[in-house]
């Protein structure tokens, strides 16, 4: 603990030995922060996670450098499924440069499991998509998405709440009760969970028990008669006598029973589990075969279209013979590249594709060209994206547009849409509003519900408003120029009329 005025380490006295300032209030604030941390720790140990979050946040309000409170708050967030909030707290704690900080270990363990991070990102996207489905009154799709979220992140309290709310709306109260009980096991005092449970109880008239069910064991005193073999015990006020049963326990019988049990288990597995597994594998294989057949049919249709276009180009006329020959060569090379690509020969596909002039291709052929190019030249596309991203970060927007436009032409969704997003931002910074508006609209349509889509929608509104203002100003300037021309023409007509009158007067005088 250091002095807030000069940074000198504090001692047991109530003033700073470095600057002499009174630090009794600072010590009191730190004691309050530690007290709130202890309360939060006690609540977290009994799974009162909501209460723990409140106490720990108050502790950090008193002392933002309370590393223990910040790390514990991150752990509580992580336990409730809020991984992003937990990472935020741990990153803040790590940046305070405290030796032996537990936040370093938490972050390292979480980053070491890349699959888990990807799964967390997927759950966040699916939860946001479920919220969007709810706003669109598409409840069935929202339920499917939330079930996937809970399968990947079974601690996300918000997903339990939203799914149970959908069940309450559909009057499926028992499903909602089951989900809310699971949420209560994670956070025992969450007010939203308890409020939804009260609604379920009010609708069904059945109370909900949140206690963990345990098997009841009743102790009873048993007495065995050594001569007759009968067993006597008491159940309440009654005495129960069980007669002896003859049982011959030999080693052969034990081995035989074990063997029979193994045979029965193997038979059950063979007749029950294996057919179900085989049927599942066959169903999955049939689905994949149908999917591949559809893809092959689509590709064959595209090849037929290309062949038709090639035949049309070859039979075009003599006047454009050289141009048609060049275009037909491009289509033949594209077909060769596609054939090699389908056969898995990426080197042959790249060799044929490099000889194709994409400017000579139609829109459909250009789409196939971009798809194959993005696969066989993945390193080049990645290099273009890296160069464009670096230029965007360096505010060199012209170079960023040059590189990122090529990446977007190959794959509009490259790098989860960041290529399209950076390209739109670069056009916006260059003042090319029409191109920026088009790119933002394409990104917002492809990635709805994301934070970048929110920015894109705001940018679309801003650019459309700027375009409307520019159009109004242009119309105003055009009207002003037209009025000025009309005034000038009127003045010219007046001067010509005066000149003609004067000439007529002179002519009349001469005649007289």
Topology diagram in text:
Blueprint: H1 24-45, H2 49-62, H3 67-79, H4 83-94, H5 102-112, H6 114-135, H7 139-152, H8 157-169, H9 173-186, H10 191-204, E1 222-224, E2 231-235, E3 238-242, H11 251-314, H12 321-342, H13 346-353, H14 363-376, H15 378-393, H16 397-410, H17 418-430, H18 433-446, H19 451-511
Antiparallel strand pairs: 1-2, 2-3
3D structure, described in words:
It is a single chain. The chain is 73% helix and 3% strand. It is mainly α and 512 residues long. The longest helix has 64 residues, at 251-314.
Question: Which keywords apply here?
Answer:
single chain; 512 residues; mainly alpha; three-stranded antiparallel sheet; 73% helix; disordered C terminus
Q: Could you give the order of the helices and strands?
A: HHHHHHHHHHEEEHHHHHHHHH
Overall residue-averaged pLDDT value: 76
How many strands appear in the DSSP assignment?
Answer: 3
State the helix count. 19
Q: Which class best fits the helix and strand makeup?
A: mainly alpha
Gross morphology is extended
Helix content: over 70%
Largest sheet: 3 strands, antiparallel
Task: Specify Rg, calculated over alpha carbons.
Answer: 39 Å
Q: How far apart, in Å, are the first and last alpha carbons?
A: 119 Å
Largest beta sheet: strand ordering:
1-2-3
Uncertain segments of ≥5 residues (pLDDT<50)? 212-221, 488-512
Percentage of residues in strands: under 5%
């Amino acid at each position: 603990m250091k002095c807030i005025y000069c940074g000198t380490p504090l001692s047991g006295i109530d003033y700073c030995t470095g600057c002499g300032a009174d630090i009794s209030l600072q010590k009191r604030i730190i004691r309050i922060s530690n007290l709130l941390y202890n309360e939060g720790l006690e609540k977290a140990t009994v799974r009162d996670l909501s209460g723990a979050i409140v106490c720990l946040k108050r502790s950090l309000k008193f002392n933002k450098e309370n590393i223990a409170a910040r790390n514990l708050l991150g752990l509580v967030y992580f336990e409730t499924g809020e991984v992003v909030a937990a990472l935020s707290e741990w990153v803040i704690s790590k940046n305070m440069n405290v030796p032996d900080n537990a936040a370093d270990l938490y972050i390292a363990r979480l980053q070491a499991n890349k699959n888990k991070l990807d799964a967390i990102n997927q759950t966040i996207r699916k939860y946001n998509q479920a919220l969007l489905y709810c706003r669109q009154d598409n409840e069935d799709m929202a339920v499917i998405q939330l079930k996937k979220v809970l399968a990947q992140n079974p601690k996300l309290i918000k997903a339990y709440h939203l799914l149970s709310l959908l069940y309450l709306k559909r009057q499926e109260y028992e499903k909602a009760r089951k989900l809310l009980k699971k949420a209560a096991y994670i956070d025992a005092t969450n007010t939203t969970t308890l409020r939804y449970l009260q609604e379920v109880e009010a609708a069904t008239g059945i109370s909900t028990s949140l206690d963990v069910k345990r098997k009841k064991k009743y102790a009873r005193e048993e007495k065995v008669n050594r001569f007759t073999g009968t067993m006597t015990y008491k159940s309440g006020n009654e005495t129960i006598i069980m007669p002896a049963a003859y049982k011959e326990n030999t080693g052969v019988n034990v081995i035989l029973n074990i063997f029979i049990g193994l045979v029965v288990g193997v038979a059950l597995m063979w007749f029950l589990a294996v057919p179900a597994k085989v049927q599942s594998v066959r169903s999955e294989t049939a689905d994949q075969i149908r999917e591949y057949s559809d893809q092959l049919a689509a590709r064959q249709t595209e090849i037929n279209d290309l062949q038709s276009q090639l035949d049309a180009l070859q039979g075009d006329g003599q006047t454009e013979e050289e141009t048609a020959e060049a275009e037909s060569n491009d289509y033949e090379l594209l077909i060769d590249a596609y054939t090699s690509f389908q056969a898995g020969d990426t080197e042959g596909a790249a060799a044929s594709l490099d000889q194709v002039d994409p400017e000579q291709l139609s829109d459909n052929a250009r789409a196939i060209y971009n798809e194959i190019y993005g696969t066989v030249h993945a390193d080049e596309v990645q290099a273009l994206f890296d160069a464009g991203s670096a230029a965007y970060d360096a505010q060199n927007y012209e170079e960023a547009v040059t590189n990122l436009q090529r990446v977007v032409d190959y794959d509009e969704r490259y790098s989860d849409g960041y290529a399209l997003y950076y390209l739109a931002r670069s056009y916006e910074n260059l003042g090319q509003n029409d191109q920026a508006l088009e790119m933002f609209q394409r990104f917002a349509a492809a990635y709805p519900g994301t934070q970048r889509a929110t920015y894109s929608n705001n940018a679309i509104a801003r650019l459309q408003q700027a375009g409307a203002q520019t159009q109004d100003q242009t119309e105003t300037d055009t009207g002003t120029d037209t009025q000025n021309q009309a005034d000038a023409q009127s003045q010219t007509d007046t001067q010509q009329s005066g000149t003609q009158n004067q000439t007529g007067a002179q002519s009349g005088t001469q005649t007289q």
